[in-house]
Amino acid sequence: MNCKNCHSDQVIKNGFVRSKPRYRCQSCGYDFVPNSSMDKTLISWFCFDEQPSKPCSVVSLQAVDDYDALAFGQDAPGKWSTASNDNIRTQTKEQLAQNPAQEIVLGEFMMMAAVYQDKMVTIYREGEVYASYTIEKLFDFLGSPYLQLVIGPIKLSPSFAESFRGKIKDVRIYARALTQEEIKSLKPNEPSSIRPFSWYDFSRDGWAEDQTGRFPEIKNGGARKENPEDGYVIFDQDNRYLNTMDSEAVRIARDFRQRLMADPTRPTYHLVNSEGDGDRNYSADPNFFVYWKGQYHFGYMNKGDEYAFGHYTSTNLVHWRRRGDCGLGSGGCGTGGTIITKDGKKVIFVGKFGGRASYIESSDENLEEWSEPIDIDVPPEALEADYWIFWDPDAWVEGDYYYVYSGSHAGHPFDSRPGSGSWYKEPTLMRSKDFKNWEFLGKFMSKDLPGLDRQDFSCTDFFKLGHKQMKLLISHSWGARYYLGEWKDNKFTPDFHAKMSWSWNSDNKPVYWAPMTYLTPDGRRVIMTLLRAKLGNTLWSATFSLPWELSLADGGVLRIKPVRELECLRYSQMVESNMTVKAGKAYRLEEISGDTIELDFTIKPTQAVAFGVKVLCDKGNKNGLNIFYSVREKRISVRDEKGVKDPDANNRAYADAPFELKEEEDLNLRIFIDRSLVEIFINDRQAIVQMHLHKPEDVGICLHSEGGNLEAEVISWKMAASNQW
User: Are residues 545 and 614 in the same domain?
Assistant: First the structure.
């Protein structure tokens, strides 16, 4: 048996407490009863430099979502209290009303302590009892492998602004309930006869180190010292913090990270959901894509214990930083659209919160703090229309108005057969000048195109592209698709439709899913999407596409190409030119190979009737992913030729996309290989994303031709890793 306080094994039996054996540690003198790991004491010496305008804390003990903190202004302005998850260990409002109000003297140091003993909590100020109350639900902090000490905010979460603003001399935790006399005997920056569970003495040179060694790792979120000799550390802005993790949590995290990094299938320069963990943290629909205060913000539904919105930022669309859940999930979350207000002061996200048409707004520099959902006052004429539904909305600004478009669905489960969607609704439209008073404009589309009966309008995005208006969306049976047409008199009239999802995963679902776009500051329309590309038992869960640039060529042809920012990942350029590929023979590239690589092929077909490139093939030019063009069928096809079979899948791994070479036109294939993901751009007019499991040694590349010889050249670059791990 080890001591609960100092973990020494030098313990002896020392009587009984309520029929339970009591033990004494010969190293630190601590008396304890085994299996009682709830008792603790939180203590800090600090001063305020600003009058707190919002709830704040100095010290908090946190394990995942469970925490206890010593707070000021929590649920009662000007009063001290404890704080806990869902207020399960927090004083009631009636109890808080009995706590004396406290005048804050700026720059004056004070000592506060919170003692948890069995079901009794006692708060002390300067060693004197400030408040006491009983609790029912206890926090077994010693039993958690993910324990953290948080200094500065009430809790550490992806969105917190409850940061303390002032100076802190000393923070310590005791793994037992200290008596009043023991509390009074303590001095800041001086050791105690009772060994702390954790102790941060900010007067020392190593001020960011736990003096007990309990928490070997610390993350500094902006806390600082102005002078080395200062006996305190400064927290001078919101979102300043120090937080630690215990050695077990660090070990678990490092082990998981190493396992991810060692996974030969995990992409290296795609944006990958860092949480991994299979089904529990599975990325879903992207929902907002916006450029705000110098950063691109990309958000998506992330399935943990329940859906919440994940959030990444980037300055260049290539290197992404995980910001954590950004607060969009309050009240339940669903797909929606994002706009910047007409005055450029706020970002608004329109969605379905708690089953209602709502919006939330933020002016936070990092878009981490959002309002609670604000219901949209839907006009009565909309509610009375038999085709009205609020489903996967999109929003945009046009002139003096905000427009909100609602998508539609075709029944449940999603089914495109005529008559199958008994609750099929058509897309509708509203507008407002102030986001408060709304005008119902009726049906969004003047017509639909033939052959698209009851395809649902989900994950919608509506924007101007060249001289046309583009409606980007998904249907659950077809995947990503789009309309091009005219926007006039508050009606969209489409004149062209095409799919964008051409490949299927092992569950027979479209890989390219729920795309979102944004207009960059230099006027490019950039698109990113979820790739439903989980492969077998790989640790990583899902990933997102490379950013593509959309444009409209003369004649209204959609052009698709990777964004130029990806060029920053290139290194080790190689060129092979003047290659002649004979009909029926494979031509293997001798100097170029790899599975984290960009390839730019130019192929002159001459008399060939089918030709292309095979990547990730073995030494015999077998297996691999075959990308080829059929002159007769006028299509680009991708075939998984064996590869590594996934025992948990039916291995449907292929794609066919319509494509026609013009007379005398060469075939240009830009191929981005990133481990098990391959993105292919064909003459900037078509794009396909395909998955392919391969053995680590199978990284060969070869050309092939049928019905005639061909000539080719290729430029290649190795691609550096860009994702967060």
Answer: no
Where residue 303 falls among pLDDT bands split at 50, 70, 90?
low
DSSP 159: S
Three-state SS letters, 254-275: HHHHHHHHHCCCCCCCCCECCC
Task: Indicate whether 389 belongs to any domain.
Answer: yes
Q: How far apart are CA 122 and CA 114, in angstroms?
A: 6
Residue 587 β-bridge partners: 703
* pLDDT of 472 above 60: yes
- 323 and 209 within one domain: no
Answer yes or no: is pLDDT of 139 > 90: no
Closest by Cα among 471, 462, 684 to 559? 684
Position 208 confidence tier, pLDDT thresholds 50, 70, 90: confident
Q: Is 669 exposed, middle or buried (0-12, 13-18, 19+ CB in 10 A)?
A: buried
Determine phi and psi for 96, rounding to 5 degrees: -60, -35
- Total domains in the fold of the chain: 4
Q: Which of the listed ranges 83-92, 201-210, 551-560 does the model predict with the highest average pLDDT? A: 551-560
Four-CA torsion 342, 344, 346, 352, nearest 10 degrees: 40
| pLDDT at 649 (0 to 100) | 42
SS in 3 state form for 11-54? EEEEEEECCEEEEEECCCCCEECCCCCCCEEEEEEEEECCCCCC
Residues 654-677: tens digit of each pLDDT: 789 999 999 889 999 999 999 989
Of residues 414 and 237, more confidently modeled: 237
- Do 581 and 698 lie in one domain? The reply is yes
Residue 700 in this model has a pLDDT that exceeds 60? yes
Residues 6 and 92 in one domain: no
> For the chain, how big is the Rg over CA atoms in Å?
31
611 and 493 within one domain? no
Structure tokens at 674: 């990133």
Place of tokens 């396909």: 688
Domain that holds residue 149: 37-249
Q: What is the pLDDT of residue 272?
A: 86
The number of CA neighbours under 13 Å toward the Cβ of 14 is 15
Within 8 A by CB and 6+ apart from 596, the residues are: 268, 269, 673, 674, 675, 718, 719, 721
Distance, CA of 354 to CA of 382 (rounded, Å): 20
What number is the average pLDDT over the span 358-370? 88
Identify whether 724 is part of a domain.
no
Cβ neighbours for 547, distance < 8 A, ≥ 6 positions apart: 317, 318, 526, 527, 528, 562, 563, 565, 566
Q: What span, in angstroms and rounded, lies between the C-alpha atoms of 587 and 608?
A: 15
Q: Please report the DSSP string for 399-414 in residue order.
A: TTEEEEEE-B--TTTT
| 3-state SS class at 62 | strand
Q: Nearest to residue 175, comparing CAs of 47, 339, 319, 2?
A: 2
User: 317 Cβ partners below 8 Å, 6+ apart?
Assistant: 296, 526, 547, 563, 565
Cβ atoms of 153 and 164 closer than 8 Å: yes
Average pLDDT over residues 601-611: 92
Q: Pick from 222, 249, 276: which residue ends a domain?
A: 249
Mean predicted confidence (pLDDT) in 118-137? 92
For position 301, what pLDDT does the model report? 81
One-letter amino acid of 60: S
Are residues 244 and 291 located together in one domain of the fold?
no
In this predicted structure, what is the pLDDT of residue 108? 94
Helix (H) or strand (E) holding 549: strand 548-552
What pTM did the predictor assign?
0.69
How many helices, marked H, and strands, marked E, lie in the chain?
4, 49
**Calpha distance 476→394 (Å, rounded):** 18
